[in-house]
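User: Predict the complex with NDP.
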Amino acid sequence: MNKTILITGATSGIGKATAIHFAALGARLILCGRRQERLDQLKEELPTVVHTLNFDVRDKASVFKAIDSLPESFKNIDVLLNNAGNAHGLHDVIEANLDDWDTMIDGNVKGVMYVTKAILPFMTERKSGHIINVGSIAGLEVYPKGNVYCASKAALNAFTQGLRIDLNPLGIRVGAVHPGLVETEFSEVRFKGDINRAKSVYSQLEALQAEDIANTIAFMVHAPKHVTIADITVLPTDQANATVLNKKK
Ligand code: NDP
Ligand code: 8X3
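Assistant: Here is the predicted structure with NDP placed in the model:
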């Protein structure tokens, strides 16, 4: 596959599974995250050309510095996968922690904006490119105690639609995938390392695996150039919407 793909949040879960998927197809990968040891391990293990970038998407200066540091041979980015993000906490607005709110808005919303803005010139110059944002069912429906995480993904959904409008004259494709429950490190992060609570989110049902979303992203990327998959919502069969789950007793 003759494409250069930049993936944020490649050290875990959906981003890592997508990196593995495209590496097997021979794509050139730019893998981003904050855990350098995991980036190094992926670079060593993946059967393709990999360049790693270590930055926090919330840090505007670091984002632009990292993208600026890309070698010329990696600057023709064909696909940007804005995947980095997490939920932090699950509390009603009275109990919720303001630092968690800042982390989610800064990472899930502003982080995507910074990375997109830093990479856009490579796409606008060539009038070519594909941006895929990882939203969530949480951005389409609000659930109890989801307040700011849901707001962050709803904002990302609006940003995705705005990007598609603004980049339409340039032929740059923009789409979003909105997963339901995917068994990754997501809930471990949300519950601040409480592994048992994290596991219980995915117990008594068959959750999506990160590879399921990687396959969906690949479907979006492989669509012919005149086809934009604007939105895909992917749920486990055991999940009907943001709140209705078929948990087996
Ligand atoms: P993981 O926790 O497994 O992966 C999150 C990834 O994002 C990690 O690679 C992490 O890398 C990176 N990341 C998080 N914060 C930052 C930051 N501030 N700067 C740079 N990188 C960051 O979770 P998932 O794979 O599940 O999550 C990926 C995306 O999918 C997220 O946007 C999430 O909201 C979304 N999503 C997840 C669902 C789920 O049920 N799991 C469902 C719907 C959407 P590192 O820590 O190394 O920086
Ligand atoms: C992740 C899915 O339902 O845990 O975005 O918010 S959910």
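The pocket of 2-hydroxyethylsulfonic acid (ligand 2) is lined by residues 87, 136-138, 180-181, 242 (CB under 6 Å).
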